[in-house]
């Protein structure tokens, strides 16, 4: 996207991309300007610090942050900016993302992170949530969101099930 990004999608590693791409796909589908970057809380703490510090001045309105394991990226970003942070727990190898979920959702009071479901659904919903946030101040985007919901409703309403034997 060449437009000034409104949503930053960040993740702790390129191994998170197959999950986090689902957030980016939703932003793309709604034409929301965004950027996607690898920013690690523990491997590149200086980069993370700079990203959070510069986010507001660069015009970001929301940050979707995905991480797995001891997933402190969303919480650390939220600690350093007042831009809303949407946390996506990425499935981890041994604990299947339960660790990521608890790390992100259990923020002590004072610094919120909006936490989504583990994995692909969470990433997609974080993208949709960012769209919904921006749509509160953008009538055209709100209309596209309403159309998306209507299409989804119709698709589900038309679902049929195979007969039982
Ligand atoms: C976290 O560690 C990342 O968010 C990723 O989910 C996890 C594993 O990273 P890699 O070892 O695959 O780079 O920082």
Automatic annotation (TrEMBL):
Record: residues binding substrate: 13, 16, 43
PurE domain residues: 5-156
Enzyme class, broadest EC rank: isomerase
Biological process per Gene Ontology, one example term: 'de novo' IMP biosynthetic process
Catalysed reactions listed for this entry: 5-carboxyamino-1-(5-phospho-D-ribosyl)imidazole + H(+) = 5-amino-1-(5-phospho-D-ribosyl)imidazole-4-carboxylate
EC number assigned by the record: 5.4.99.18
Molecular function (Gene Ontology), one example: 5-(carboxyamino)imidazole ribonucleotide mutase activity
Keyword annotations from UniProtKB, A to Z: Isomerase, Purine biosynthesis
Pathway in which the depicted protein is active: Purine metabolism; IMP biosynthesis via de novo pathway; 5-amino-1-(5-phospho-D-ribosyl)imidazole-4-carboxylate from 5-amino-1-(5-phospho-D-ribosyl)imidazole (N5-CAIR route): step 2/2
Xref: InterPro entries: PurE_ClassI, PurE_dom, PurE_prokaryotes
Function noted in UniProt: Catalyzes the conversion of N5-carboxyaminoimidazole ribonucleotide (N5-CAIR) to 4-carboxy-5-aminoimidazole ribonucleotide (CAIR).
Recorded family membership: Belongs to the AIR carboxylase family. Class I subfamily.
Cross-referenced HAMAP family: PurE_classI (MF_01929)
Protein name: N5-carboxyaminoimidazole ribonucleotide mutase
Organism whose genome encodes this protein: Acidihalobacter ferrooxydans
Lineage of producing organism: Bacteria, Pseudomonadati, Pseudomonadota, Gammaproteobacteria, Chromatiales
């Amino acid at each position: 996207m060449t437009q000034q990004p409104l949503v930053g999608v960040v993740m702790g590693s390129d191994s998170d991309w197959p999950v986090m791409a689902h957030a980016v796909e939703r932003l793309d589908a709604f034409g929301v300007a965004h950027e996607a970057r690898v920013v690690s809380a523990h491997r590149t703490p200086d980069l993370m610090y700079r990203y959070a510090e510069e986010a507001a001045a660069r015009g970001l309105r929301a940050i979707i942050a995905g991480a797995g394991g001891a997933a402190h990226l969303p919480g650390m970003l939220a600690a350093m900016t007042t831009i809303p942070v949407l946390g996506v727990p990425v499935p981890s190898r041994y604990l299947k993302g339960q660790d990521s979920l608890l790390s992100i959702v259990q923020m002590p009071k004072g610094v919120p992170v909006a936490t989504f479901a583990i994995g692909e659904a969470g990433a997609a919903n974080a993208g949709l949530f960012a769209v919904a946030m921006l749509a509160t101040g953008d009538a055209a985007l709100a209309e596209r969101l309403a159309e998306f919901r209507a299409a989804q409703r119709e698709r589900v309403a038309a679902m049929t099930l195979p007969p039982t034997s």
